[in-house]
Amino acid sequence: MKITLPDGSIREYEKGVKVLDITRDISEGLARVSLGAVVNGTTKGMAEEVNENATFKVVKFEDKEGKEIFWHTSAHVMALAVQRLFPEVKFAIGPAIENGFYYDFDTDHTFTPDDLEKIEKEMGRIVKEGHEMKRFVMDRNEALDKFRDAGEIYKVDLIENLPEDEVISFYSLGEFTDLCRGPHLLDAKKIKAIKLLSIAGAYWRGDENNKMLQRIYGITFPKKKELDEYIERMEEAKKRDHRKLGRELDLFSIHEEGPGFPFFHPKGMVLRNELENFWREVHREKGYGELKTPIILSESLWHQSGHWDHYKDNMYVTKIDEGDYAVKPMNCPGSILVYKSKMHSYRDLPLKWGELGLVHRHELSGTLHGLMRVRSFTQDDAHVFALPEQVKDQLVEVIELASYIYDVFGFKYSVELSTRPENSMGTEEQWEMAENGLRAALEEKGIEYRVDEGDGAFYGPKIDFQLEDAIGRTWQCGTIQLDFQMPERFEMEYIDKDNEKKRPVMIHRAIFGSLERFIGILIEHYAGKFPVWLSPVQATILPISDKFNDYAYEIEKKMKEKGIRVEVDDRAEKIGYKIREARLQRVPYMLIVGEQEVENESVSVRERDNGDQGQIKLDEFISNIMDEIKNKGK
Length: 634
Fold this sequence. Notes:
Layout: E1 2-4, E2 10-12, H1 19-23, E3 38-39, E4 42-43, H2 64-85, E5 90-91, E6 96-97, E7 100-106, H3 113-129, E8 134-138, H4 140-150, H5 153-160, E9 168-173, E10 176-179, E11 193-203, E12 212-221, H6 224-240, H7 242-248, E13 252-253, E14 263-264, H8 266-285, E15 289-290, E16 296-298, H9 299-305, H10 307-311, E17 317-320, E18 323-327, H11 332-339, E19 344-345, E20 351-360, E21 376-386, H12 391-408, E22 412-418, H13 428-444, E23 450-452, E24 462-468, E25 474-483, H14 485-489, E26 494-495, E27 501-502, E28 505-514, H15 515-525, E29 539-543, H16 549-561, E30 566-568, H17 575-584, E31 589-593, H18 595-600, E32 602-607, E33 611-617, H19 618-630
Parallel strand pairs: 15-20, 19-26, 22-23, 29-30, 29-31
Antiparallel strand pairs: 1-2, 3-4, 5-7, 6-7, 7-12, 8-9, 9-10, 11-12, 13-14, 16-18, 17-18, 20-21, 21-28, 22-24, 24-25, 25-28, 26-27, 31-32, 32-33
Helix pairs in contact: 2-3, 4-5, 7-15, 12-13
């Protein structure tokens, strides 16, 4: 039979040829096949045999999928190294993650930084040995017997919880064999740079009632230069860590009495309120009304919405007057109840309602991380209820709004379109219509996007915005979801121009995503050096000695009357010390006042990033900073 290879060339093979035989003929690319062969139209992971209908996709390390393959293979290399150095270890799981990979181990030995160095060196030796990754399958009972005999209790647990029809596949690398779906590199030779990063504790299956395992994190690259650049970025990221800066700048804290529930301090609330004010301003301009819906609603509502069936493990529940209630994990059912509180005409649509809604979700304790992963957070939700013919224009408007907001903060972004997941509601026709609607909006705006198959919400496909920060990291923030399910489940209606009742289409969207998480991202993006309009303290006045304190307070009064956030540092300290303190607090402007400034009704301006700017009349400085605040630094 003839097979078309990724480079367009056609090779002739005997029927039933093995995938490995074909992939050896692929000269370019990182991996043999990204998803394996498509046999009779169905993806089979890494299929053993292919036919004339097979299709191949070669990926490179630069691709998201390529990194996953590269790092997943690296996890197997690390597991083999650990097996050689610590033969008594039991193996749990070892996936690729956003930046690298990890493997969870069960061993009485406590891993140390010295051990990481030994494991790294052994991984280097394994790569040079040139082992191929070999795939094979077993039936369920054979696989269970194999791992029970080896004492690999975690693999047994995994197999026992696989679906009955699951193909149970394994990959062997040298003397290490692992339960794994794949795909992987053909061999490990392309792994040229290795760095094991850290050791952490991790409960089996993330459940604190299970045994604590030891997790080793690592990262690898095809070139040493790429590893060096990554380490440099990570060093910069440590300096920008929002938890560290949050303490130093007195923005927020998290306490044992409320794990996963952030406490915002006065300065943090200034930052938060400025973001909320900006959000309200742009949404008013775009014709949105603002809602406030209850935090606790009847359990029956969450059954109706579908959240109970798809999300109940992440929900907090309570009883009120013997009735069952739940703390809301999402805002959309509340918005729907507002819609249903009166009958609407087609003339009313589109209705655009936003809500800064506090939601609660139960996250496992091991996953909590500063403001980035919390149990209570505020979503900047909005819901658009539209006629079918209005959907495309409304989607385009949301994309434009998101683009404008991200530009204010200096974020570049990329876009992903996520399609129907396995655990979903609705018909194929509804999902196809929704996915096509999102595609059409993106294409009208000329936006390139990547398709993330099967990662949509359970009620509809979505567009996700991946923001790129100042040091090149990406963060998933905004999302747009097109929903035909909720209107149907809640029997939402409007009166059409022919006087018949019809269903609106519902667009769910958030731009900040989680306000708490967005604040964490901003802290790291700006390294705590917020633009003037966001800065908790916009200027600090530094009298050279206490003789000039009265003038300093006159300046403070005048600036506060203009709405400028200003403080006076009247401590009996040297001016150099006061300047250093202000710089540590990342204050944008330091106004130094002494005898000349009093005589000239001026201030000597020192900028946070650009140093001494010389003496300027006070009224002129106030005018300049007010323009900068109003224009948000543009």
